[in-house]
Design a protein that fits this description.
Blueprint: H1 2-14, E1 26-37, E2 61-64, E3 67-77, E4 82-89, E5 92-99, E6 109-117, E7 120-126, E8 133-147, E9 150-152, E10 162-165, E11 169-181, E12 186-195, E13 198-204, E14 213-220, E15 223-233
Length: 234
């Protein structure tokens, strides 16, 4: 009897903490996220890179730096378990560099920075929407708008020549995370996403920064996006 009373007391104590999701609910989350590119660069591939490929080391590649940014997302529960989430990260600025070309005529160097705007839409399955701990998985599409995308060789054989990120990107996104539901609709959230982003990189390789734009790389950025934050159900 005493054990039953204890169980009922605990249930009564914790039940107000559960912000149960239902069809038609909206959830707004704010996260701090680390965007960590998992880039794949073919900068040193002489078969594809025109005149630049003749003066680079075979292993030369473009690298893209990590960045911590704020992220806002809005979810709508289509059913109790299925939610659509629109992820609205602010523009994320990354430094771009050449690495592994110490033996080449261009050399290792910083090229500048680019600004990426990557809105993403995912469809999620929530396993325990009526429990305190609610893990979920999701998948969807990403569109990355390449903003402020001009770079420049700062030293070496092509010093002063311009570089540009040539195209925006469509890709897919995979997602996993967990909501910890608290009282009054509040929640704590942890989330990880893998996003595919690919683009072409072009440069003007003529003397005095002249000539046609030549493709110098097919760059896959493909970041891991890991975040933690808070949210509110409405």
């Amino acid at each position: 009897m005493k054990k039953s009373l204890v169980v009922l007391a605990l249930a009564a104590a914790f039940s107000p903490m559960l912000a149960q999701a239902e069809a038609g609910d909206w959830v707004v989350r704010a996260r701090a996220v680390n965007v960590s590119p998992n880039e794949d660069s073919r900068l040193g591939n002489k078969a594809n890179q025109g005149s630049l490929g003749t003066i680079l080391s075979p292993g030369a590649e473009l690298t893209v730096s990590d960045k911590v940014i704020p992220e806002l997302d809005i979810s709508y529960y289509i059913t109790k378990n299925i939610a659509a989430e629109l992820i609205l990260a602010l523009g994320t600025r990354h430094n771009v560099s050449i690495e592994d070309d110490s033996a080449g005529a261009v050399g290792n160097q910083d090229l500048g920075s680019v600004n990426l705007l990557p809105p993403t839409l995912t469809l999620q399955w929530h396993f325990n929407p009526d429990q305190m701990i609610d893990p979920y998985v999701g998948a969807g599409i990403n569109y990355t708008n390449m903003l402020d995308k001009k770079l420049r060789f700062s030293s070496g054989a092509r010093a002063g020549n311009s570089i540009k990120i040539d195209s925006d990107s469509w890709g897919y996104a995979l997602q996993a995370g967990v909501d910890i539901n608290l009282k009054d609709g509040w929640l704590i959230n942890a989330d990880v996403k893998y996003v595919t982003i690919d683009t072409d990189v072009k440069a003007r390789l003529g003397a005095n920064n002249t000539g046609a734009w030549e493709k110098i790389d097919s760059l896959d950025i493909n970041p891991w996006v890991v975040g933690i934050g808070i949210g509110k159900k409405f």
